[in-house]
Amino acid sequence: MTDSENGRRLHAVDDALLRRREAISDLGDALRLLIEHATATEAPTEELRRAAERIRQAAAPLGERARGRHEPPSADDMRAGVRLYNPVTGAGSAFAPPLEIHQEGEITVGACTLGLAFEGPPSYAHGGVSAMLLDQMLGYAAGASGNPGMTVRLDTGYRRPVPLLTPLRLTAEVVDVDGRRVTVAGSIATAAEPGEILVAATGVFVGLRAEQARRLFGAIAGRGEESRAG
Ligand SMILES: CCCCCCCCCCCC(=O)SCCNC(=O)CCNC(=O)[C@H](O)C(C)(C)COP(=O)(O)OP(=O)(O)OC[C@H]1O[C@@H](n2cnc3c(N)ncnc32)[C@H](O)[C@@H]1OP(=O)(O)O
Q1: Chain segment 84-133, per-residue pLDDT in tens
Q2: Domain containing 128: what range?
Q3: What strand order describes the sheet that includes 107-113?
Q4: N or C of the chain: less Cβ packing under 10 Å?
Q5: pLDDT by residue (tens digit) across 195-221?
Q6: Does residue 191 lie in a domain region?
Q7: What CATH number has the domain bearing residue 153?
Q8: Is the CB of 225 under 6 A from ligand 1?
Q9: Atom of ligand 1 nearest to the CA of 143
Q10: How many domains does one find in the chain?
Q11: Residue 39 falls within a domain, yes or no?
Q12: Is 8 a member of any domain?
């Protein structure tokens, strides 16, 4: 194969991967819409039965070619941190808000709006959902600082309830690195009042030793994700 033929082939692979990722995000959007409507609906009972039947029919072909537990999604890129089905940030995940995270200098910043599907106390977020968002934020901050690890402790203080259907702002920052152990602090506030902390968390993350990474992730280690968690 000539260089230009090889180049065209690589481009075609990239295009196919890009199209697959777009399709996965599109399906994720549709599923999240479905979940939100299914949670909020007061449609007639017969409409619920018809919808359930149509949804089962739509799901069947997706299940025909499914991956197993140790097989990463073909559209993911573990090395680049592309995890399309991450339950917090994944564009393809039916129940990810999804939380969007980026780095601003030393600070990790996240944004999302929680729909009715995340309700705990009426009109507010479930406490476990807040902890899940913060675990992801703190884990991301640890990784972004060059110290990826797994959560060994997550202390969560709930100061005020987190409102649903309200843009949220989350932050996280590494406060201590001690060998394999990284301590990260973070919080949830509304985007409108970022100074008023609703939930605050401190997490401890531990970097894996090589043999631990092999033991836990050995089945996918060949795909280059030995030391990352999440
Ligand atoms: C851009 C990137 C995007 C990347 C974005 C990624 C985001 C991911 C966010 C989600 C992350 C997750 O949910 S991870 C999933 C939830 N977590 C887990 O399932 C972890 C389960 N735990 C384990 O498997 C294990 O604890 C290990 C393998 C992590 C560590 O085992 P170990 O190596 O035997 O640990 P051990 O020697 O006891 O402890 C190591 C050190 O940590 C300390 N340590 C241990 N436990 C604790 C604790 N609860 N609180 C404080 N400190 C502790 C010990 O004192 C010790 O310190 P010293 O004596 O050395 O000083």
Answers
A1: 999 999 999 999 999 999 999 999 999 999 999 999 999 999 999 999 99
A2: 100-221
A3: 100-104, 107-113, 167-178, 181-190, 199-206, 150-158
A4: N
A5: 999 999 999 999 999 999 999 988 775
A6: yes
A7: 3.10.129.10
A8: no
A9: 2
A10: 1
A11: no
A12: no
Ligand 1 atom 8, closest CA: 230
Decide whether any atom of ligand 1 lies within 6 Å of the 151 Cβ.
Answer: yes
| C-beta 172 within 6 A of ligand 1 | no
Q: Is any ligand 1 atom within 6 A of the Cβ of residue 141? A: no
Q: What is the pTM of this model?
A: 0.91
pLDDT > 70 in the chain, percent: 90
Residue 144 near ligand 1, beta carbon < 6 Å: yes
Any domain includes 106? yes
CA 142 to centroid of ligand 1, rounded, Å: 12
Which of the listed residues 82, 84, 147, 150 should we mutate to test ligand 1's pocket, taking the one with most ligand atoms within 8 A of CB? 150
Residue range 143-197, pLDDT digits in tens = 999 999 999 999 999 999 999 999 999 999 999 999 999 999 999 999 999 999 9
Pocket lining: 152 vs ligand 1, CB cutoff 6 Å: yes
